[in-house]
Amino acid sequence: MKRTNVRLSWRDRAAAQSFRTAVSLHSHTLHSEESLAFIPRYTASVPVVAQAIRQQEERYRTSTGSTLDFSKAFWRPPLAPREAYDLERKQIEDHLEADALVSLTDHDDIQSGSLLSVIDPRIPISVEWTIPFAPSFFHLGVHNLPATLAPAVMRELAEFTRQPARGRLSELLARLNEFPETLVVLNHPLWDEARIGAVEHAQLAGRFLERHGDQIHALELNGLRPWKENAQVRWLAEYSGHVMIS
Known about the structure:
Blueprint (H helix, E strand, L loop, with lengths): L20 E4 L9 E2 L2 H6 L3 H18 L9 E2 L5 H16 L2 E4 L8 H9 L7 E7 L2 E8 L6 H13 L5 H10 L5 E5 L10 H15 L5 E3 L6 H14 L2 E3 L1
Parallel strand pairs: 1-4, 7-8, 8-9
Antiparallel strand pairs: 2-3, 5-6, 6-7
């Protein structure tokens, strides 16, 4: 039976000493579009900021006659692929004193890995793929795509994100599983990004794994998510039979 053993390096400095290599599986570069849809949600609890946002929304409505849709706007992280790669690599080498394997996963974009793999073929071509799953969505970390096939595969993945078709998701996941060197991770599976409700999203995650869990290799323990959520993901992984990857 697959089991996950979680060890926290900030509590146990010796936790990494028995390992020769550490892997970074989730980071973004300036090629990644990060949605601004979170702004109204996260500013709602800050009265002054919330009021300022509402004023701007009202001005936009008065000027255009339509509602300001933050989901259509985005920001980009500041680092170029080489800078982001080196930052992740140095953190592993300096703090964990281990060899580093870094997989950059921009949202629905493989440019970072594609560019860096020209310089060093050992650098994987990877992506964080957005999967619409009504009424919400999930993110899959797809790591180490075959270099010669990666552009064509990415076009297929992006087409599904734009226009999801019934049955197509299983076909695409099956194709990814045909590549023995490719790792597929369900990132932050219990993060309710679409704000449909935590219980509803958890039920949706369960249905997603019931349908496609045999084509998912691991669930992510995400260091930027609350520990309570990660503890629930750990329970989900035990229930679904998946290992966790941090």
